[in-house]
Structure formats: C-alpha cells, structure tokens
Amino acid sequence: MVRKVRIYPDPVLREVARPVEELNEEVLRLAEDLVDTMFAHEGLGLSANQIGELLRVIAVYKGEFTGREDEAQVLVNPEVVYHEGEDVDEEGCLSFPGLYFDVKRPYLAVVKALELRDGKLVPVEITATGLYARVLQHEIDHINGVLYIDYLEPKERIKKLREWKEEQRKKLSV
Ligand code: ZN
Fold first, then answer.
1. CA 119 – ligand 1 centroid, Å
2. d(CA 50, CA 157)
C-alpha cells in the first residue's frame, strides 16, 4: 500500500527507530508499504521513519544499479560497519520535495543487515560504492533520526531551508 510520506519538519523524522526483533506480519507489511511508496514516488530509497513507523527497516531501489527495473531491496537492522574515501554528489529526499544539494559522504560503505528475501531474513554484508553507497548511508541516517540537511553548515542550512519553504509556499498558493 502506498503510504503518505512524512515531510520535514514532521517530528518522526528526528526519532531513532528501534531494531526489528522478529519477522512478523507488521514487519512484512511495513516492507511492502516501503517498496510500494518508494516506487510511487520514484525514490531511490525510503526509510520506515518517512512513512511514520519507528522500526529499523529501509528500502532501496536496487534496479537503478542493476538495470533490473523492478528490483527493490529491503534491509532490516542495517548498519554501516566500515566506510572509506570521499564523494560529493547531489542528494534529494522524499521528505524534502524539491530540495537538492551536494552532500559529501564516504565513497565506499560496508553495510551489515538482514535482507528480506522471499519472506525470510538473510544476513548480508554489502560492499557498496558511489550512488548505491550514498543511498544506503542516506537511508540508514533516517532510521537514526539524521537528515541530509545535517551535513550543511548551519548558515547554509538556514538559507537552504528558507528557500525551500518559500518554494513550497509558492506551490501551495497556485
Ligand atoms: Zn531521505
């Protein structure tokens, strides 16, 4: 089911999500909703916080990297266990529609997680680089209550948020 995406400054975006302890109906439904909502909004990734659920579950549009169009990846309790290098690229976020800016992140990230495959949780260790690493890090930040605007210098953050809110107001008034 496509769910409503929470928009900043919804307080749920600042909460730390709790770990999944068992695979149950709630987690399976959440996983499905994350994927449906991510595809509906053409996002590269989505975290549980963004649809108002505080469980450590993220979805990534893996098709972007594999070329298999409908391929989504659902990771449970993901954590970055190693990172290396540096990479600057433009980022957006479904919780900040229309707000894009450059974010510096490690180029390579090793992520440990339980991957949901055919209704089962499989332990995985993913070594990701470039955009894939960026998406994983962005989504893992979300379940820790961290947002991409946190990487901006305070002055820059205030300016960007002011411009973004102004844009949103314009859109609402037409
Ligand atoms: Zn985001």
1. 25
2. 20
Choose among 123, 133, 116, 130: nearest CA to 73: 116
Domain boundaries of the chain, sorted by first residue = 11-173
One digit per residue, the tens of pLDDT, for the chain of length 174 reads 999 999 999 999 999 999 999 999 999 999 999 999 999 999 999 999 999 999 999 999 988 888 888 899 999 999 999 999 999 999 999 999 999 999 999 999 999 999 999 999 999 999 999 999 999 999 999 999 999 999 999 999 999 999 999 998 888 887
CB atoms within 10 A of CB 98: 11
Element (H, E) at 116: strand 108-117
Cα(46) to ligand 1 centroid in Å equals 7
What architecture (CATH level 2) is domain 11-173? Alpha-Beta Complex (3.90)
In the 8-state DSSP scheme, what is residue 154? H
CA of residue 45 to ligand 1 center, whole Å: 7
Residues labelled catalytic: 139
